[in-house]
């Protein structure tokens, strides 16, 4: 029997709404189980493929840019762990972020190809924030090689931004993006765009709210976090509680999900809905 398999859907023309789906074949000796979590401008896909060695971060590269046939490679895992890893994001250079087991626990990793968009490369541990339980998770990476995710810190899980010493470098530094006021010292960064704007979620007194973190200078490591609920235009935002921001593009458009209550304190119950914010 077939297991859960990864697919690639390609439009008949760029940005069209009709197209076709192909299965991205498994790695040799796989368990007919794979998943995809990110794709870049060349059509490279990242995720995981399960095999006898465990669930490993994997990279699928098309035979030609944005083609529908190609091949998977196993990106491996971090040293001294339990042999498990998963890739969650890829940039236009072909750098990959994700999470893998290491000697100390789950750690965010960065995999950098030997040549841009190549199928061979090396993985490094991005580290974690001070004072926590030596754990971190990588979620997204931009074209400069800045990565975001979350890490345990002294006060709880906190959103991080990792910035390479040089663009697309393999060494750099991680900073705590802090959290929104009034919550339980909790934040998670989920996506970053080419200017270094970061989105995710953070706790407030009433639950989780979507946030936008903006650097003081493009791609900088110093900036400020704002509750996206405070930025919504009143008429279109009526009835909404924006809970999680999942993605931000280079125009500053933000997609996510939250609760929508069409009649406020009336009889109709709130429902979970996706949102698109356009500045």
Mean residue pLDDT: 92
- Regions with little confidence, pLDDT below 50 for 5+ residues: none
The total count of strands amounts to 21
Classify the secondary structure makeup into a structural class: mainly beta
> How much of the residues is beta strand, in percent?
over 45%
Spatial sequence of strands, sheet with the most strands: 3-4-5-6
Order of helices and strands: EEEEEEEEEEEEEEEEEEHEEE
Distance between the termini: 47 Å
Contiguous helical run count: 1
- The helix content, as a percent range, equals under 10%
- Estimated radius of gyration: 19 Å
Shape: globular
Largest sheet: 4 strands, antiparallel
Structural overview:
With 279 residues, the chain is an all-beta fold. The protein contains 1 helix and 21 strands. The protein has one helix at residues 234-237; strands at residues 7-11, 19-23, 30-39, 45-51, 54-62, 70-76, 85-90, 96-102, 105-113, 121-125, 131-141, 147-153, 156-164, 172-176, 187-192, 198-204, 207-215, 223-227, 240-248, 254-260, 271-277. The strands form 6 sheets. A 4-stranded antiparallel β-sheet has the order 3-4-5-6, with no helix packed on it. It has a 4-stranded antiparallel β-sheet with strand order 7-8-9-10, with no helix packed on it. A 4-stranded antiparallel β-sheet has the order 11-12-13-14, with no helix packed on it. The longest helix is centred in the C-terminal third of the chain and has 4 residues, at 234-237.
